[in-house]
Amino acid sequence: MQRIRKGDQVIVTTGRDKGRQGTVIRALDDNRVVIENVNMVKKHQKPNPQMGNQGGIVQKEASVHLSNVALYNPATKKADRVAFKTLDDGRKVRVFKSNGEVVDA
Q: Which domain holds residue 67?
């Protein structure tokens, strides 16, 4: 079970985009995530008429390592760490470390 998943609200804790907040678009296998409108890079793309792609410089999101990202806690309005807890019915859920509130509904 991953600490940060697709659709989570996160805050970047270090680097060029420190303090920026966004939603996780994709969680990659190698401990990296792609966040909406964070870590934007310019890619020089060749035209491909068969696929309908026009050439030029395209802006897109690059991945960020999980160690540079923290989950956003709406109760405290700050970044928070995540722990795992097993409920009485046997489900394993994510909880915030600061207040013990369950992340997953």
A: 9-48+56-96
Global confidence as pTM? 0.85
Of 24, 23, 13, the C-alpha closest to 70 is: 13
Q: Are 35 and 69 in contact (CB under 8 A)?
A: yes
Instruction: Establish if 4 belongs to a structural domain.
Output: no
The whole-chain average pLDDT of the chain stands at: 94
Q: pLDDT tens-digit profile of 53-95?
A: 999 999 999 999 999 999 999 999 999 999 999 999 999 999 9
Residue 105: is its pLDDT beyond 80? no
What is the number of alpha carbons within 13 Å of residue 23 lying toward its C-beta?
Answer: 3
| Residue 10: burial class (beta carbons within 10 Å; 0-12, 13-18, 19+) | buried
pLDDT band at 104 (very low <50, low <70, confident <90, very high): confident
CATH classification of the domain holding 80: 2.30.30.30
